[in-house]
Amino acid sequence: MATLVDVVQALDELYPPATAASWDHVGLVTGDLGQTVEHVRFAVDPTLEVIQQARDDSVDLLVTHHPLLLRGVHSVATTHAKGAALTSLIVADVALYCAHTTADVARPGVNDALAAACRLTRLRGLSREGDRELGLVGELVEAISLREFAVRLAEALPPTPVGLRVSGPADAPVRRVAVLGGAGDDRFEQVRACGADVYVTADLRHHPALEARQEARGGTPYLIDAGHFATEWLWLAPAAHRLAAVLEQRGITVETSVSAVRTDPWDFLVGQRPEDVGQRPQAKE
Question: Among 170, 191, 213, 220, which residue's CB has the most CB atoms within a 10 Å radius?
Answer without folding.
Answer: 191
